[in-house]
Amino acid sequence: MAARARVLVVDDSPTMRGLIRAVLRSDPGIEVVGEAADAMEARSAIKRLNPDVITLDVEMPNMNGIEFLEKIMKLRPMPVIMVSTLTQRGAEATLAALEIGAFDCIGKPAPGDPRPFAELAETVKAAARSQRHLPDPVAAGQPAVAAPASATPSDYQPARKIIALGASTGGVEALIAVLTKFPANCPPTVITQHMPATFTKSFAERLNRHCAPQVKEAEDGDRLEIGRIYLAPGGDRHMEITNSASPRCTLIEGAPVNGHRPSVDVMFRSVAKLAGRKAVGVILTGMGRDGAAGLLEMKKAGASTIGQNEKSCVVYGMPRVAHEIGAVDCQFPLNQIGEEILKSTTTTSRKDRVA
């Protein structure tokens, strides 16, 4: 029998600590070994209890969760799950935490929520199994986000292709690592990242500040253009790529697929149908299997397909399934994926260039 995941719960609200404790203790694979109301108590508890995973409130007195997370990642790296309010302020703080190295973020439940923290137990167990790979700049105390390309590489000419990326847990770090390698004239790029609805707009804005291409949260009808990156909005719709007169983002109603909406599979399948060999599909770190079947459809349609390798994944779930079913042409470490995408989308042939 596998050892239970040992968890330390850190939150200044006794009510919230009690709710998290009750949810986690209902899972036989988890043991709540301690609780703390602030960073000082948490620091002492970490030394005393040596937990496998920490759940950490973003907003706390004396030292907030972001400041405490930075200290944890520098001094004693371990899986940390941020617990945040699903607000604009909460989104900005949580995204900063994910860039620093938090394993994942979980939203605090709204009053009357019939299933509070429904995903927390599975996230905790995945965190306990994971290997926390910190980016070198963070470990060295440097900014987590790479500087954007200052100019388009003189030897890069974009081919008439569409780039499609899917990610889940660990995807914030992974997408930053990949997209900051892109030049300003990259091919049209579409992304589905599993993320709460209130977070995707903030994440797109953060990416836009750090990347050479323009990044935005996709809107229904957005035309795919060179030098533009479109992030599927979280919430109640999937994102497909369709073609009326030209390729566009289309937001559609539909039930969750693989437990997610938007779903990576839905996006990949639409790209396979629309673009075929004129596409590159990339599946990055994440729990579950969303995106694997859609990536296989892309490969069968002639697209180039890339998977993140196990060692560099926060969670080797989605890329593992894609690899096992034969959907991935090649696997690469995260720090090579951006360059490999560019190799697959550059051309010296004038007829293949994007106008």
From TrEMBL:
<feature type="domain" description="CheB-type methylesterase">
    <location>
        <begin position="156"/>
        <end position="348"/>
    </location>
</feature>
<keyword id="KW-0378">Hydrolase</keyword>
<dbReference type="GO" id="GO:0006935">
    <property type="term" value="P:chemotaxis"/>
</dbReference>
<dbReference type="InterPro" id="IPR035909">
    <property type="entry name" value="CheB_C"/>
</dbReference>
<dbReference type="InterPro" id="IPR000673">
    <property type="entry name" value="Sig_transdc_resp-reg_Me-estase"/>
</dbReference>
<feature type="modified residue" description="4-aspartylphosphate">
    <location>
        <position position="57"/>
    </location>
</feature>
<keyword id="KW-0145">Chemotaxis</keyword>
<dbReference type="GO" id="GO:0008984">
    <property type="term" value="F:protein-glutamate methylesterase activity"/>
</dbReference>
<dbReference type="Pfam" id="PF00072">
    <property type="entry name" value="Response_reg"/>
</dbReference>
<dbReference type="Pfam" id="PF01339">
    <property type="entry name" value="CheB_methylest"/>
</dbReference>
<feature type="active site">
    <location>
        <position position="194"/>
    </location>
</feature>
<keyword id="KW-0963">Cytoplasm</keyword>
<dbReference type="InterPro" id="IPR011006">
    <property type="entry name" value="CheY-like_superfamily"/>
</dbReference>
<dbReference type="GO" id="GO:0005737">
    <property type="term" value="C:cytoplasm"/>
</dbReference>
<protein>
    <recommendedName>
        <fullName>Protein-glutamate methylesterase/protein-glutamine glutaminase</fullName>
        <ecNumber>3.1.1.61</ecNumber>
        <ecNumber>3.5.1.44</ecNumber>
    </recommendedName>
</protein>
<dbReference type="GO" id="GO:0050568">
    <property type="term" value="F:protein-glutamine glutaminase activity"/>
</dbReference>
<dbReference type="InterPro" id="IPR001789">
    <property type="entry name" value="Sig_transdc_resp-reg_receiver"/>
</dbReference>
<comment type="function">
    <text>Involved in chemotaxis. Part of a chemotaxis signal transduction system that modulates chemotaxis in response to various stimuli. Catalyzes the demethylation of specific methylglutamate residues introduced into the chemoreceptors (methyl-accepting chemotaxis proteins or MCP) by CheR. Also mediates the irreversible deamidation of specific glutamine residues to glutamic acid.</text>
</comment>
<feature type="active site">
    <location>
        <position position="290"/>
    </location>
</feature>
<keyword id="KW-0597">Phosphoprotein</keyword>
<dbReference type="InterPro" id="IPR008248">
    <property type="entry name" value="CheB-like"/>
</dbReference>
<feature type="domain" description="Response regulatory">
    <location>
        <begin position="6"/>
        <end position="123"/>
    </location>
</feature>
<feature type="active site">
    <location>
        <position position="168"/>
    </location>
</feature>
<dbReference type="GO" id="GO:0000156">
    <property type="term" value="F:phosphorelay response regulator activity"/>
</dbReference>
<comment type="similarity">
    <text>Belongs to the CheB family.</text>
</comment>
